[in-house]
Structures are given as C-alpha cells and as structure tokens.
Specification:
Order of helices and strands: EHHEHEHEEHH
Low-confidence stretches: 6-24, 213-228
Helix content: 25-40%
Radius of gyration: 17 Å
Largest sheet: 5 strands, mixed
Distance between the termini: 24 Å
Shape: globular
Strand order of the largest sheet: 1-2-3-5-4
Number of helices: 6
Mean pLDDT: 85
Strand content: 5-15%
Structural class: alpha+beta
C-alpha cells in the first residue's frame, strides 16, 4: 500500500525535493522523504555513522518509499513489493531502498516483532543471501540499555524504517573498509561525545505526525509472486 516513491537526485538536499499538498491523513509524503534525507545528511553522513552511505547518496542510488500501511498486514505487502523491485532493479540505478512507515509501528516493540515476519518473508521469497533488511526507529533501543541512553540514537530515524540492502553491495563496502568491525564502537563513542544536546541540535526529528494504528503483527504472510 505504498505511495509513489521518490529516488533522491544526485546530491539532493531535503529542501530541493518537491512538496505536494499534504494528504488528508496528515502525512505529507514529500515531507517524510525530506525528513529522512535531512537525517541521512546531518546524522548518518554528517557524523559518519555509516561510511558507506555517502557514496550511494551522492550517486542518487537510494530509493525512498513512503508506505501508506496502517497495520502489519499492509506493511508486509509493501515490503514484499519493494523487495521484489530492488531485486529486479539495476544496482547502478537503485542500490538500496528506505521504506518509511509513518502510519503504523509507532511502538518499537511492535516494530521489533514485525522484523521476524520481515526476515521470514525474505526466506519465502528466496532472497536470503541476496538482500537483507536493516531497521531504524524513532524509539530504537539496544538490548541492555535504558531508553534515554544516547547511544540508541545511532539507529534512530525520524520514522520507523526498513532498510533493504543488497548483500553484494554490503560485502563490497566492507571489503573497501577494512576496519568495518570498529564502526559500532566508534559510533557509540561519537554519540557519547555529542550528548543529548548535540543530537537535538542536529534537528533530525519527524515533522509528520505518527499514527496510533494497530500493529497487527500477527497478520498472515503474503505469498510471493512467482517468477519465470
């Protein structure tokens, strides 16, 4: 149930993206995309939380999709469609996809439960080892941390987000960055030094309201489309 998606042009900044009239449900897709691009540029790239992000962003290879899903069933359908689209697309044109979900999964525990269904879907579609799904959430919390722990911000985005990644691209990026295993520890240190005030100063929050929709994470899994 995703809305028409947007691929950011080369070197795009959030302010350069078109802003259509806001939808009746209070979610403006263009603003959601703008918020994500701003977060990517200021936090992910600006703080160098992911050394691999700048290249695909600069080349315009990130595909942004705003899901209109209001529950887990609809989101799973959107995810299936975007997984298929990414698997079939040319890596030069679409290397990775960010599927944003402003209409449901506001609760991080619901979102975390949904990730199990997402991984099962990958297997059912025979895309395990080809694609993988990472995730971001406004209330992301590492196991063993308190909710206010600043290090949780490394995985906090403006909206619940499923990041669809090509395994080949990830392998190539890791090979080009020999100290990839040090990224996590470095990010923890960067956020501790930045502190809550520094993170707030980045102004990377959501401008569209999150909906209090039912998670419905127990929805049955869709059957993937057969391919010739």
């Amino acid at each position: 149930m995703s809305t028409p998606s947007t691929t950011a042009p080369t070197g795009a900044h959030h302010a350069d993206l078109p802003v259509p009239d806001a939808a009746g449900d209070g979610v403006d897709d263009a603003i959601v995309v703008q918020d994500m691009v701003r977060w990517l540029e200021r936090a992910v790239i600006g703080l160098n939380l992911c050394p691999f992000a700048k290249g695909v962003h600069t080349k315009g290879q990130i595909h942004y999709v705003v899901s209109a899903a209001t529950d887990g069933r609809e989101l799973l359908q959107d995810l299936q469609r975007e997984l298929e689209a990414l698997a079939e697309a040319s890596p030069e044109k679409r290397d990775t996809t960010l599927l944003m979900v402003p209409g449901c999964m506001e609760n991080f525990l619901d979102f975390n439960d949904f990730l199990e269904l997402a991984d099962e879907l990958l297997d059912v579609m025979d895309l395990g080892g080809i694609l993988q799904i990472a995730n971001f959430h406004p209330q992301f919390q590492f196991e063993g941390t308190e909710i206010e722990d600043i290090t949780n911000a490394t995985n906090r985005a403006p909206y619940p987000t499923l990041h669809l990644i090509r395994e080949e691209s990830l392998d190539a990026a890791v090979e080009a960055f020999p100290e990839a295993e040090m990224i996590y520890e470095r990010n923890m240190e960067v956020l501790r030094e930045l502190g809550h005030a520094g993170w707030q100063a980045l102004d990377v929050g959501a401008r569209c309201p999150m909906h209090h929709a039912s998670a419905d994470t127990a929805a049955p899994q869709p059957t993937p489309t057969e391919k010739a």
